[in-house]
């Protein structure tokens, strides 16, 4: 499981590496460059799935077919 994801702001292109929570989805993220409050795109569960280099841990678990993978995202 990858716990680091680089979020890139679609407004100013500021990129920052963040540690993702393993037990929840992060719905909001404030860009450290321009201050824009990011929220997930339609159909995505969190900002990591929309703007990150790696999807959130619950989605990673589901995609890998991890036995018993429960997701806050499905």
Structure description:
This protein has one domain. The two termini are 18 Å apart. It has 74 residues and is α+β, with helices and mostly antiparallel strands. It has helices spanning 47-51, 57-64, and strands at residues 4-8, 15-19, 29-30, 37-38.
How many beta strands in the DSSP annotation?
Answer: 4
Task: Report the biggest beta sheet as strand number plus sense, adding barrel if it closes.
Answer: 2 strands, antiparallel
Helix content estimate: 10-25%
Quote the distance from N terminus to C terminus.
18 Å
The overall pLDDT, averaged over residues, is 89
Give the number of helices.
2
Structural class of the secondary elements?
Answer: alpha+beta
Q: Shape, please?
A: elongated
Low-confidence stretches: none
Number of separate domains: 1
Query: What is the C-alpha radius of gyration, as a whole number of Å?
Result: 12 Å
The proportion of strand residues reads 15-25%
Elements, N to C (H/E): EEEEHH
Quick take:
The protein is an alpha+beta fold and 74 residues long. Helices cover 18% and strands 19% of the residues.
Chain-wise SSE layout:
Blueprint: E1 4-8, E2 15-19, E3 29-30, E4 37-38, H1 47-51, H2 57-64
Features:
alpha+beta, two-stranded antiparallel sheet, 4 strands, single chain, 74 residues
């Amino acid at each position: 499981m990858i716990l680091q994801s680089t979020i890139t702001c679609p407004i100013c292109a500021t990129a920052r590496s963040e540690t993702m929570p393993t037990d929840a989805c992060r719905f909001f993220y404030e860009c450290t460059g321009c201050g824009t409050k990011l929220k997930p795109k339609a159909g995505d569960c969190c900002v990591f799935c929309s703007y990150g280099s790696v999807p959130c841990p619950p989605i990673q678990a589901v995609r890998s077919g991890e036995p018993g993978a429960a997701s806050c995202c499905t």
